[in-house]
């Protein structure tokens, strides 16, 4: 089911929660809405579900208009064929697992084959043997699985999930993430997943929509957003990285970015840099920094500031030059804070962001 939002606006009093938002969600895709708390993610989800009415705009599901301010169309939630999972599970405490899942089916008036549907839904979340229990007899993870079963029981074409894993502890979150991903693909649903956790968004989605202050800052495949962020804001929100302002200069054929008087970064001699110069902003991901304890060709020197063990590698911050510029890098061995370290930055992998949000990766 394709979902298309056109110029969706929503205000609460003087607060503009969504600002003329345009978004297309392809059929059977897994799309994440990613952004800090208060940026309008829940509001957008509730508007798609029909639990909240927008002030203006249009929402289409395939060729059907489910909301239009102009045409005064507002299809009620239960007629939209959408399942929803909330952060706080929202189960009925006085109902068993079975009754909780069956409840949503009764609400849509489909009594026929109800028992089978509930059974299938519980089987899909591996809770078949828990149908007689009450929510308080279940762990947090099991409760959230009941909520998922309830959302999928009626075979919705679309499932909306509002930070469904944020109340769970880290290990459980990983298990549930995999369960959700495989369930969405298996049932061929279109999924919209709200999170403020960039790792979750990057890991689960086909498409990530980065939001702030009721606006979409950037959207695309997780890899594109990670490698080619369009602004400092997106770059700092997605993944680890170093963001530096500098001055692009040329010494003969050789382009550089001057970060400080004592710190220049040599760029690859590429055609695209020839016509560029002046102020620029660059993003350097830690995996594009090479470290060595001994000097090597073109290496510059810095000082190890912090070392964090991440299991498969160490995350290191370096300080460079008289202004102690901080650079993120990875190391396969444990380094010692305060020690000297040689580094180069893989110049092909530097991503430039124009100060005015301009230079895309094609032109930079
Ligand atoms: N029912 C409401 N009444 C007034 N303000 C609201 C209401 N719902 C949300 N808001 C405000 O709208 C903004 C967006 O909220 P929300 O969509 O919940 O953000 P998010 O889910 O991204 O954290 C916030 O500033 C929030 O306080
Ligand atoms: Mg929210």
Description:
The protein has 364 residues and is an alpha+beta fold. The protein has 2 domains: 3-236, Rossmann fold (3-Layer(aba) Sandwich), CATH 3.40.50.300; 240-353, Nucleic acid-binding proteins (OB fold (Dihydrolipoamide Acetyltransferase, E2P), Beta Barrel). It is 23% helix and 36% strand. The chain has helices spanning 41-49, 97-107, 114-124, 140-152, 170-186, 198-204, 222-227, 232-237, 271-274, and strands at 3-12, 15-25, 30-34, 56-61, 64-68, 73-74, 82-85, 158-162, 190-195, 207-212, 215-220, 242-251, 254-260, 263-266, 278-284, 289-292, 300-309, 314-320, 325-331, 340-345, 351-353. The strands form 4 sheets. Strands 7-8-9-3-10-11 form a 6-stranded mixed beta sheet, sandwiched between helices. The longest helix is centred in the middle third of the chain and has 17 residues, at 170-186. Bound molecules: adenosine-5'-diphosphate (ADP) and magnesium ion. Adenosine-5'-diphosphate binds next to strand 2 and helix 1. Residues 12, 15, 17, 35, 37-43 line the site of adenosine-5'-diphosphate (ADP).
């Amino acid at each position: 089911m394709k979902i298309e939002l056109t110029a969706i606006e929503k205000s609460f009093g003087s607060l503009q929660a969504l600002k003329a938002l345009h978004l297309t969600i392809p059929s059977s895709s897994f799309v994440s809405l990613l952004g800090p708390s208060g940026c309008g993610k829940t509001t957008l989800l509730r508007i798609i579900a029909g639990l909240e009415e927008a002030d203006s705009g249009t929402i289409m599901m395939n060729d059907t208009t489910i909301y239009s301010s102009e045409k005064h169309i507002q299809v009620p939630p239960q007629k939209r064929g959408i399942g929803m999972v909330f952060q706080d599970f929202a189960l009925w405490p006085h109902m068993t697992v079975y009754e909780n899942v069956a409840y949503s089916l009764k609400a849509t008036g489909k009594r026929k084959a109800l028992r089978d549907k509930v059974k299938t839904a519980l089987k899909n979340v591996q809770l078949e043997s828990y149908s007689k229990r009450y929510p308080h007899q279940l762990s947090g993870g099991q409760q959230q699985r009941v909520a998922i079963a309830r959302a999928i029981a009626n075979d919705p074409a679309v499932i909306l999930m509002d930070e469904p894993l944020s109340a769970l502890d880290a290990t459980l979150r990983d298990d549930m993430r995999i369960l959700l991903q495989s369930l969405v693909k298996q049932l061929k649903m279109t999924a919209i997943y709200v999170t403020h956790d960039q790792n979750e968004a990057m890991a689960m989605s086909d498409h990530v929509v980065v939001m702030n202050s009721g606006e979409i800052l950037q959207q695309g495949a997780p890899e594109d957003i990670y490698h080619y962020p369009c602004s400092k804001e997106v770059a700092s929100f997605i993944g680890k990285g170093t963001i530096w302002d500098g001055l692009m200069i040329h010494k003969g054929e050789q382009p550089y970015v001057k970060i400080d008087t004592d710190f220049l970064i040599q760029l690859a001699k590429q055609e695209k840099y020839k016509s560029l110069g002046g102020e620029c902003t660059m993003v350097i991901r830690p995996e594009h920094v090479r470290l060595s304890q001994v000097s090597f060709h073109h290496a510059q020197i810095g000082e190890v500031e912090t070392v964090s063990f991440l299991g498969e590698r160490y995350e290191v911050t370096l300080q460079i030059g008289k202004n102690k510029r901080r650079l993120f890098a990875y190391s396969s061995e444990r380094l010692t804070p305060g020690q000297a370290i040689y580094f180069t930055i893989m110049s092909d992998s530097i991503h430039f962001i124009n100060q005015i949000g301009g230079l895309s990766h094609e032109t930079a």
